[in-house]
Amino acid sequence: MLTPAEDADVCEHVYIIEGDLILESEKETVKLGKNDFFSFSNIKNTILMRCNVPVTFIYVTSKPMFNRVKMYFSNLDELIKKVDEKDHYTKTHCEHVTNYAIAISRNMKCSTSIVEKLALSALFHDVGKCYIPDHILQKPDKLTPEESKAIYKHPIHSKELVEPNFGEEIANIVLCHHERLNGSGYPQGIFGDQIPLESRIIAVADSFDAITTKRPYNSPKNFKDAVEELLGMPDLYDMRAVRALKKLVDSGEIYKLCNNHVNIITSGEEEDNK
Ligand SMILES: [Fe+2]
Ligand SMILES: [Fe+2]
Known about the structure:
Layout: E1 11-18, E2 21-24, E3 29-32, E4 37-41, E5 48-50, E6 56-61, H1 65-87, H2 90-107, H3 112-123, H4 134-137, H5 145-152, H6 154-175, H7 197-212, H8 223-231, H9 239-251, H10 269-273
Antiparallel strand pairs: 1-4, 1-6, 2-3, 2-5
Helix pairs in contact: 1-6, 2-3, 2-7, 2-9, 3-6, 3-7, 7-8, 8-9
Bound molecules: fe (ii) ion (FE2) (2 copies).
C-alpha cells in the first residue's frame, strides 16, 4: 500500500528487478514488469500494490517512511507465527482470509479505501489468539463453556494488539469479525449494519476458510458445498459478500487465492468448476 505521506516533500522510487507489480488506484490499474520503474511524491489517495508472482524491487526514499510500517507488520507477524507454532493453522488461515476478503471486496466493487482496510484487518484478525492457552487452542474435542469463553475473547485481544499500530477503525473491524447479522455473534452481539461492512466481508471469508479446511474437529467441505452452506444462512452472513464469493468459486478464481494450502479439498473440484 502506498499511502499519502505525512510529509509532502517525501519522494519515493521503485525499480522492478524481477516479476510483475500491479498498481491500483480509484482511477486506474497499471501493470509494471521487469526493468520498469516509477516515482511518487505527495500522493493524495492510497494506491494498492499487488503481485501474482514473487517480485524483487529496489525501493529508494528521501525519508525512511517504510521502516515504521515494516516494524508494525513484523511485530504483529511475530505474534501470528507464535500462534501458528501452537496450532499450525493460524498463519495460513490469516493469509487465506486476507486473499478471500480482498477478492470478495473487489468483486463487490468496493472502494480502494475499503480494500485497503481489509488488507490490514484480515491479515491480523486472529492475532489475539496468542493469549489463548495452548491446551484450549489445540483441543480436538468439544470445548467446555469455560474454554469457549477464552476463545470468545480473542477478537478483543486482537483489537488491543492492532489498535496501537493501525488505529481505531482497523481495530474495530478486527473486533467485529465474529459478529453475525442477527446479533448472535460475539463479543458484543451487535446487529446488521452496526457491524462494519469490512467485518461482514471478513466473516464470510473466515467461515469459508474454516469450512473448507481440515481441522481436528471437522471434516472439510469442498468449495462449492461450502459456499452453498453460507448461502443458506442469510440471517448470519451478508449475502452480497457471499454472492461475490460464489462468483469466485464458480469462475475458479478461488484456487489462485489458496495455492499453498495442503489441507484444502481441491481434488476433482477444478474440473467441476470449468
Ligand atoms: Fe477469529
Ligand atoms: Fe479467523
